[in-house]
Amino acid sequence: MRIDPSSLRLVLFLIVSLLLFPSSLFALSEEQFFQSGLLKAQQGRYQSAIEDFSQAIAADPSYLQAYQQRAQAHFKLGMNDRAVFDYNKILFLNPNNFDAFVGRAESYNSLGVLNSAIADYTQAIALRPNEAIVYHKRALAYANKHQYEEAVRDFSKCIELKPDFAEAYFNRGISFSIQRLLDGAVGDFSKAIALGMEDKEVYAKRGQIFHQLEFFDKALKDYEKAISLDSQRADFYFGHGMAAVEKRLYDIALSDFSTAYDLDPQDLVSVFNRGKIYEELGLYDKAVRDYSQFLKKNPKDMNAYRVRGLTYAKMGRLEEALSDLSRALKRDTTNEQILLERGYVFLDMKSYDKARADFLQALELKPGLASAAQAIDELNKAQASQPAPQETS
Questions:
Q1: Which of 47, 171, 226, 254 is most open to solvent, judged by the fewest CB atoms within 10 Å of its CB?
Q2: pTM confidence score
Q3: Long-range Cβ contact pairs of 281-286 (< 8 A, separation 24 or more)
């Protein structure tokens, strides 16, 4: 069989081409890899997109857009260290790249490296001083560092540049509330709502501030709105219940605390507060049940032992009252109030010497304590009213 010379020349050409230019015949260009990566990223296929962007970068190591997109894909996958690496490369190639500073700041923020995040946002602001969103991002980083004055300053600048930015008002309101600037917080939450922020959190936050300002009717309404937006949040029912207690709406409060506990069985504070309502209503058995349930998970809570002990005392169960108040005192031996309360239990038990010892210790801890002096006076009267022992012949 004879080989055609022209075919032989073609085969030799292909072999030489493959040896000298192996990617020229079959590989995609860097632009084709880049476009493929973009499509995959839009589809949420970030790992595959990263592979394509890497191919584009391998073909052109100065391809800034490929680094940018790969960094964003790394960020989406939570691979923040790799995102930082890509942003570093972009800034090496272009030291004034605004998007790279912002992107690297977000990656640092996710890594918890807040000082570096703030530094990068500051660089971005220097490049574009009228970008409201960057002030907002830097403000959030300051807030995460508990630097609330700086956060408020940046939120305010953001609002100055973008007056209709509801989220900035909301977040500034949170910073105000943490600083106990309650009127400012209410104003910001209200502004966010006026701008159309129909979010459960803004109503719950404003309800919380209204409660602190003792506007309990307004607090109830805000918590009701929050619950209408998310009926599965135990903390919303708890907040509503606390406001209801202040209005002496005990049936509503009982229902709220029960719902909060049903939604979050770990929320034993709701159980404890329900117990306090039962105690207020004179339903002592139910109060003791709730206090006991709380103490099973919180056996070191001095106040819970104290409250249950006082409830036992109201029920006439003096031995149990004495036990609880004594346990509370073991954790706080210098609490004059608990000493007085235990002293009264001893007084009811006619253990006058022990009652006197508690009353005197309370007075020693806090000289001039009027309630201690009154307790001693009551003790003296109780002892004086006792019949004198009869002499035996």
A1: 47
A2: 0.82
A3: 281/250, 284/311, 284/314, 284/315, 285/315
pLDDT tens column, 10-23: 334 434 444 444 44
Give pLDDT tens digits for 262-317: 999 999 999 999 999 999 999 999 999 999 999 999 999 999 999 999 999 999 99
Give the burial class of 24: count Cβ atoms within 10 A of its Cβ; 0-12 exposed, 13-18 middle, 19 or more buried.
exposed
Cα torsion 165, 104, 77, 112 to 10°: value is -80
Token digits of residue 333: 């031996």
Query: Which tokens is 197 given?
Result: 């922020």
The predicted pLDDT at position 4 comes to: 52
How many residues make up the chain in this entry?
Answer: 393
What separation in angstroms does the CA of 171 have from each of 109, 165, 199, 239? 17, 10, 13, 20
Distance CA 246, CA 72 (A): 50
CB-side neighbour CA atoms (13 Å) of 350:
5
Pick the CATH number of 25-111 from 1.25.40.10, 1.10.940.10, 3.30.470.30, 3.40.980.20: 1.25.40.10
Q: Give the pLDDT band (50/70/90) at residue 37.
A: confident
Residue 115 to residue 120: CA distance in whole angstroms: 9
What whole-number distance in Å separates Cα of residue 378 and Cα of residue 343?
A: 11
Q: How far apart are CA 173 and CA 163, in angstroms?
A: 15
